Known about the structure:
The protein has 644 residues and is an alpha/beta fold. Helices cover 57% and strands 10% of the residues. 39% of the residues are buried.
Amino acid sequence: MNIESIDPFLRDVRDAALASLDVSEATAESLDFERPPEPEMGDRGLPCFQLAPVLKDSPPSIAEDLAEAMREVLADRDEILVSSVDAQGPYVNITFEPGRLADIVVTQALTADGFGSGSVVDPQEWMVEFSAPNTNKPQHLGHVRNDLIGESVSTIAEFGGHTVHRVNLINDRGIHICKSMVAYRKDGDGETPESTGTKGDHFVGDYYVRFNDLLTEEYEAWQQTDDAQQEFDAWLDEERRAGRLPDDLGEQRPQLREAFFEGFRDEYFNTYSDLGDEAREMLRRWEAGDDDVRRLWRTMNDWVLEGFDETYERLGVEFEKVYFESDTYEIGRRVVEEGLDQGIFEKTADGAVRFDLERVDMEGHKILLRSDGTTVYMTQDLGTALERFEEYELDRLIYVTGDEQDYHFQVLFEILGELYPELDGKLRHLSYGMVDLPEGKMKSREGTVVDADDLMDEMAKLAEDAIRERYDDLDAAEIDRRSERIGLAALKYYMLDFNPRTNVKFDPKKSIDFQGRTGPYCLYGYARVQSIGRRLGGWPDIGGDRRTDALQALGTDREMEVVRHLSDWPGRIREAVDELDPSEVTGYLFELVKSFSSLYNDPDHRIVDLEGPRRDGLILLSRAVADTIELGLDLIGIDTLEEM
RNA sequence: GAUCCCGUAGCUCAGUUGGAUAGAGCGAUGGAUUCCUAAUCCAUAGGUCCCAGGUUCGAAUCCUGGCGGGAUCGCCA
């Protein structure tokens, strides 16, 4: 008997018992075991309501009969796990023999090669695309969520038994990087990340900000021109015709003017702006392969990528393969050709290619080639998806992005489904909610963006302060090592402890707590278990009959609480893999550590003061807990510390 | 206007394949340290599960209609 075979065994007993009551197999299988709300009620419970109409009897009475039938079935089985089967109201509750359960669970936790690993039913080959940054600015809190979810989901899936290819698609071309390039040409003055001592991505990001500052200056000056006045007047006329504004604006006029120009900024950039012209000219020359422009682009992108590498390494994120949009942005053309050939796409009068969304019960059209023949983001995604399925035998391709892109991926999957029906069911969009600040969205123009590198520094600093409060004899290197691990543990745990779909509200002023349900709490729990080992002069080797006797000796409420949590681990991993949800792991770890902390603090469970089999049993249980915490933390990218 | 996501304790969130008394952390209040690390533990207070109908033996969970918040709906990414 092992953890995974407990429930099939119980279902088998259930089916045999119900058969003896003349209940059909189908009805029997529709009854699910659940966990009773209180441990005293038992380890599993079976609600009998659904049997009432079948057996024409009351649920409590049925529960009595079923319990008796199950006891009879069990009497013939050669398995001692179940100690009692009782009817409690309309439920049949099953209680396990504590020592037997402890033996099964702890033995498995200690001897399995990676407790809970390989627990998925059908191992597959997956690809996970995540991060996907733009090369015009450093990463912020939103990217951190993406990076951590992508990395963690991949690690969890691998642990569960899948093969996972982690890939990144870096958006290194387009108007945004040209903006940084224009600003650098104007004000760069030959400076480099080295010469200024700035991390490469921040260095380039500063020029992106510089471009926007210059644009703001230019825009404000333009607002005094006749052209600007005409645009404003034209807008006023239109609003009045539509009945949205009165003829006499009165004192509202200045506010309206301001609001109009706030909203007109993008259109100004696309029409009147000289800086806009420069950026577009830069993009045009880039696309024409102009040597000068390509050289500058290469240089600035390399700076950014060096910066990204540092951030990724510190976050513990690694990719098997990195795609660059500059290589892939044309790749969807052949998909467009295929779609046209098959009559799935259509050509418009002015030469653009589009997909009619009514084909898939949606409204409108999606352009796949502009009338000037250039590709769009969707074209690229179609091409790269197809390429990936050709290159790998993928069972699943997962895209990790913010939920603002839900529509994009819905359309992408629908189009792929039309073109290649064999991809049906293999595409997944793991979309996560936005990370907002207490004041609302992060806005670069208001300087409220939380920078990823700064955030990691701050977390490590907070951890360092906490360490210095506790110790005055640690050397600097050890303080650094611990503060980095603790700070990152806090950050990673916090970011992953939300269900991905949840919008995260992040308060940088309160920052991330080190108390309660946090990464440091889990690290601390691990360190305390390890301190038991140190106190014992190293974990003793307990095997054979001595181990069986030791585990059979366990049985107090606190001990069994820990054992039950351990027994949940393989199931929770399956759940985390199925749902692509790291918060299953964070939640599990907190519960496990909490149950062990209660035991640890209890005077009756002081391991070093105990003797005999119970002491051995607690030692084994403690080691199983430590091993499982370490495994679980690893899945969310957190490294343990032997001492905190 | 349409579509999608969300609405649960003062705050931040679990629970949403229908099941027993709706949970956790933070914050509040009180307690535990001669004892394996107090970054801990124990206890108390705190709820019209947004509202109204419906389905069901049973609804925070499913359905319908409202209300509130967010996102998206481009020859942008």
